[in-house]
Design a protein that fits this description.
The structure holds two protein chains of two kinds. Chain A is of the alpha+beta class. Chain A has two domains: about 10-235, 3-Layer(aba) Sandwich (Rossmann fold), CATH 3.40.50; about 245-370, Beta Barrel (OB fold (Dihydrolipoamide Acetyltransferase, E2P)), CATH 2.40.50.100. Chain A has nine helices and 21 strands. In chain A, helix 2 (about 100-110) packs across helix 3 (about 115-130) and helix 2 runs parallel beside helix 4. Chain A is elongated and about 80 Å long. The relative contact order of chain A is 0.12. Chain B has one domain (about 30-115, about 165-290): MetI-like (MetI-like fold, Orthogonal Bundle), CATH 1.10.3720.10. In chain B, about 80% of the residues lie in helices and about 0% in strands. Chain B has helices at about 1-15, 15-50, 55-65, 65-100, 100-115, 120-130, 135-145, 155-180, 185-190, 195-225, 230-235, 240-250, 255-289. The chains are: A alpha+beta, B mainly alpha. Chains A and B meet through helix 2 and helix 4 of A and helix 9 and helix 10 of B. Chain B: It holds the Pfam family BPD_transp_1. Chain B: Belongs to the binding-protein-dependent transport system permease family. CysTW subfamily.
């Protein structure tokens, strides 16, 4: 314990890490650098390798190849109990035969901390998660959210420079999850510890993280801030996984400075060239699309696609529409309260500026992995 | 928490109506127990007081005869040793069963159960062949240049034989507790800084204790009343109470004295269980959480 707040998180560097189980590659050449004190989220669907990555860092899983550095020293081959890392599990993993207080004291006892200091630190950790009144309860007497807060206290009480969290809120209901997200954010700010957080919930990732690494099929598709991933996805998978999106596919034509797609007889143009090797698709965020009645307000540099409203969802602050396009795909549009409202079955045109569309390489796995 | 609340509600909801139904289900077994255990037991207790005449003379004889007390003490000591040997052998075995894949688990389960299906007499005779002075163990020892050891007609021989026969009663309750232990708790302990032995002793062992207690009670009680194995494998210095009972009843036709011995054993067992009870209940409660 340092009296001054000089305690800092550890930097982590995974370099070309692979993990194979027989012929199955759980991790395929992963490289990831995490800054001291950063909140990094590993986001992806189940089986994408995010939990394997966490287990590799924790020391529960040995890498097949590659190097792993924590706080500047190589930890490949160092057993889990010598890594001094806090881990919070989805299933809480509180010791059922110990009270809350003894659970939180456990890592301190292992480190031979004296009685007086032990009590102070246990109390401080329980205070931090607002569970100080429960020190003499057994885990079975607590709700899921309370258990997870105790687990969090237990994993920070020994001041680890790195805290790993494996879908810690996965078993909790939505309201509690949202509140605990804010608690976790606060604790991260107060501690200055490096947090690595695994989730499959993109909203949770956006709420919590400094940066997000998006995993798919044992690889990292993109690393960036939530803003980067939403506004500038590098792959179709990332674009589909983060936020809502409309994906347009069709025969592509490219001339020097722009690319045109033929979407079921209607042509849309983007003022960019696509790479020759790729089959291009266009990705559009809901707020970049404007929905109008057919034939109204034409302007020349605007792309237009015709379709039919297939779903209208009232969100309070606005509405979300799903529009069935001519080629059978679905467009997603968000509108504010002041905009004109539409009903299911209305014929509409979706309009957007070419510059707002992302031109990405098609990837058939992007759809299958999401479902 | 909500599951617990729901359960509590269910319990209080219609307790009176529910309490009779399980009793009906248990009726056939209850009838059988009363017929084959209750009545003979009552008879034995009765005879200990009225055979050959009413009074405490059988108990006066039992506690007034030093050899009886020696044998009584020896019976408890040997039962304790058998229990200890069973715990030591069964614990790693049950652990292996609980973590093994389905095929190995089946094999291990069969290895426990197959000897279980062979009669105790047959197994005791098999142990005689192994343990006797010219038996396989001593042959191997002598072939290896060691001196032979005396196993048959010793307490060691009896303990070995009884432990082997009673082992399944220790393994099965241990296994059923161990397979319910979440091994991820051990992983959590490791992440908090516990080296593997420490993680075992501070997390796994306490959670497995209910199984140890359950198995130990069954083995201990069965060992107290064991007759065939001590009779066949033992010698005069390893006589257990059951042999004395048999002697009084079948050779000397002293039903009253045999009955008094049986009652003493029964009461001593109850006393022991009453002492161990509170400790165990507490452990159970904690581990069940």
């Amino acid at each position: 314990m340092n009296g001054l707040r000089e305690q800092r998180g550890a930097a982590i560097e995974l370099s070309r890490v692979s993990k194979a189980y027989g012929s199955f590659k759980a991790l395929d050449d992963i490289s990831l650098q995490i800054q001291p004190g950063e909140f990094m989220t590993l986001l992806g669907p189940s089986g994408s390798g995010k939990t394997t990555t966490l287990n590799v860092v924790a020391g529960f899983t040995e890498v097949s190849s590659g190097t792993l550095q924590i706080g500047g020293s190589n930890v490949v081959g160092v057993p889990a109990h010598k890594r001094n890392i806090g881990v919070v599990f989805q299933h809480y993993a509180l010791f059922p035969h110990m009270t809350v207080g003894r659970n939180v004291a456990y890592p301190l006892r292992l480190r031979g901390v004296g009685k007086a200091e032990l009590e102070t630190r246990v109390r401080r950790a329980l205070d931090m998660v607002k569970m100080a009144d429960f020190a003499y309860r057994y885990p079975s007497e607590l709700s899921g959210g309370q258990q997870q807060r105790v687990a969090l206290a237990r994993s920070i009480v020994f001041d680890p420079p790195l805290l790993l969290m494996d879908e810690p809120l996965g078993a909790l209901d939505k309201k509690l999850r949202e509140w605990l997200q804010l608690e976790i954010k606060r604790i991260h700010r107060e501690l200055g510890t490096t947090f690595v957080y695994v989730t499959h919930d993109q909203e949770e990732a956006l709420v919590l993280s400094d940066r997000i690494a998006v995993f798919n099929r044992g690889r990292i598709e993109q690393i960036g801030t939530g803003h980067d991933l939403y506004d500038a996805p590098e792959t179709l998978f990332v674009g589909r996984f983060i936020g809502d999106s409309t994906v347009l596919r069709g025969a592509a034509r490219s001339d020097g400075s722009s690319t045109a797609l033929d979407v079921a007889g209607e042509t849309v143009t983007v003022p960019r060239r696509h790479r020759d090797t790729d089959r291009p698709v266009m990705l559009l965020r809901p707020e970049k699309l404007v929905m109008r009645k057919p034939g109204v307000d034409r302007s020349d540099n605007e792309n237009r696609l015709s379709g039919t409203v297939s779903e209208a969802i009232y969100l309070g602050s606005g509405s979300k529409y799903e529009v069935l396009l001519r080629d059978g795909s679905t467009g997603i549009v968000r509108s504010s309260l002041t905009d004109q409202s539409f009903a299911i079955g209305d014929a509409v045109e979706l309009c957007f500026r070419g510059a707002d569309a992302k031109l990405l390489a098609d990837d058939s796995t992007a759809d299958t992995t999401l479902t | 928490m909500s599951a617990g609340a729901a359960r509590a509600e269910e319990d209080t909801g219609s307790a009176s109506r529910r309490s009779l139904r399980p009793l009906a289900l248990a009726l056939p077994a209850l009838v059988l127990l009363v017929a084959v255990i209750g009545i003979p037991l009552a008879t034995i207790v009765l005879r200990s007081f009225n055979d050959p005449e009413w009074g405490f003379q059988n108990y006066v004889w039992f506690f007034g005869t030093p050899v009886n007390l020696v044998v009584l003490q020896r019976t408890f000591t040997m039962a304790a040793w058998v229990t200890v040997v069973c715990v030591i052998c069964a614990y790693p075995y049950a652990y292996a069963m609980s973590v093994a894949g389905p095929k190995i688990r089946l094999l291990l389960t069969l290895c426990v159960l197959i000897p279980f299906w062979v009669s105790g007499v047959v197994r005791t005779l098999a142990w005689m062949i192994l343990l006797q002075d010219s038996g396989i163990i001593n042959m191997v020892l002598r072939a290896g240049g060691f001196e032979g050891i005396r196993l048959i007609r010793t307490q060691t021989g009896v303990i070995i034989g009884m432990a082997q026969i009673l082992l399944p009663f220790m393994i099965l309750p241990l296994y059923s507790v161990m397979k319910g232990i979440d091994l991820r708790l051990v992983q959590a302990a490791r992440s908090l800084g516990a080296a593997p032995p420490r993680a075992f002793f501070s997390v796994y062992l306490p959670l497995s204790l209910p199984g140890v207690y359950a198995g130990a009670i069954i083995v201990f009680i069965l060992a107290l009343g064991f007759y065939i194995t001590p009779a066949l494998l033992g010698g005069p210095r390893s006589t257990m109470l059951s042999t004395l009972v048999q002697n009084q009843v079948l050779s000397l036709l002293q039903w009253g004295r045999g009955g008094a011995m049986g009652v003493v054993l029964l009461v001593a067992t109850f006393l022991l269980l009453a002492l161990a009870g509170p400790l165990m209940r507490q452990r159970y409660k904690l581990a069940a959480r």
